[in-house]
Structures are given as structure tokens and as C-alpha cells.
Amino acid sequence: DLYWICLRELNPITLPDCIGQIDPKIWISQGVVERILNLPRDHPEYEGRLSAVYRTLASKRTLLVLDGYDEALPVVTRMISLLVKQDPGLHILMTSRPGAMGLSDISFDLHVDNLGFSTAHIKQYVEKYFRLRHPNFVEDKSVTEFLEFIEKRESIWAVAHIPLQLPMLST
After folding, report:
1. What is the DSSP letter of 63?
2. Is 42 helix (H, G, I), strand (E, B) or coil?
3. Which residue in 9, 74, 86, 151 has the most C-beta neighbors within 10 A?
4. pLDDT-based confidence at 149, cuts 50/70/90?
5. What is the mean pLDDT of residues 142-154?
6. How many alpha carbons fall within 13 Å on the CB side of residue 60?
């Protein structure tokens, strides 16, 4: 099973002052049921879904994708820290903007930085994109013009290095 959880979606969930007494797996299960499945606590299926998500987490066959650590409130990051410390066998992929994870007390098996595209990668991507988009593509004039256009505009050139953004610029 896979649960993708946008951490800023958990910010509005109210927690009592006694955070250390809450089972983090129950808390994250509530987040999945309330924020992903959109079931309010008074929904007839709420308890059953909550139990199912909790059992799935306990089975250790689940990947939790916790997206946007840098956007989570301190109470949410505290609960994540408790979750990881309580059950180090959980499979978690955490995303964050650069620098935010350095403030965390969570220990990870692997830390990966997405450095983005190099200039060579941008050129390679654009060439492949134009070839696929234009089947009769033979000369690289349109690639050269496009690359010159984005290189001359500093803000666009910075965005072109982000793998998710370059396809949007290329359209």
C-alpha cells in the first residue's frame, strides 16, 4: 500500500497539549482517513477505515510519502518525529525544500538531493522533446532558438533547471 500525505493538509488537525501520549500511528491514520479519504469523524465508515489504515501501517508493507516537511507546522513535525522514533521499521519517503530537513531530529537511512538539470541536461531534454513533439523534426534551429530565449531570461533559465518545470516551459 502507498499513502501520499501532503503534510500541510495535516496542519489543521487539532492535537491536545499532551502530544507524547498520542499514538503517532493513530494520528497519521486519522490524517489519512480525514484528509485523503475525506471522511468526517461522524461518518459511519470512519472507524472501520481508521482501523484498516492503522492495520496497514502496522503490517510494515506500506510506503508513506510525507510530502512537504518544510510546510508542516511544528506540531506536525513533532508527531512525525515521534512516529519515526516509535516505529523505525516504517517505510517513509519524506520530501522537503532544501535546508528544512537539517532542522529535523529525524534520522534517515538515505538523504537524496534533487540538484535539478544541468545545462547539458536541459539541452538534451529540449532536443528530445522537440523530436517527439514534431515527428518531422530535422534541424535544430527551433531548439537553438528556444534555448537562447530561455537563457537570456534569468528567471526563466532558473526555472528550466527544475525537472518538473522544464516540460511546461517547452510546450
Report:
1. E
2. coil
3. 9
4. very high
5. 89
6. 5
Residue 18 has pLDDT above 60, yes or no: no
Q: How far apart are CA 25 and CA 80, in angstroms?
A: 9
Cβ count near 50 (within 10 Å): 19
Task: Please indicate, yes or no, whether the overall pTM of this predicted structure exceeds 0.90.
Answer: no
40 to 12, 13, 75: CA distances (angstroms): 14, 12, 21
Task: Label residue 154 left, alpha or beta by phi (over 0 means left) and psi (-120 to 50 means alpha).
Answer: alpha
Task: Between 12 and 80, name the one with better pLDDT.
Answer: 80
Bridge partners, residue 67, by sequence: 6
- The CA distance from 98 to 113, in Å, is 8
Query: What is the rounded distance in angstroms from the CA atom of residue 91 to the CA atom of residue 132?
Result: 37
Q: Identity (one letter) of the amino acid at 111?
A: H
Cell numbers representing residue 131 in the block: 523530436
Q: Are strands 2-6 and 63-67 parallel, antiparallel or unpaired?
A: parallel
Residue 138 is predicted with a pLDDT of 60
The mean pLDDT value of the chain amounts to 84
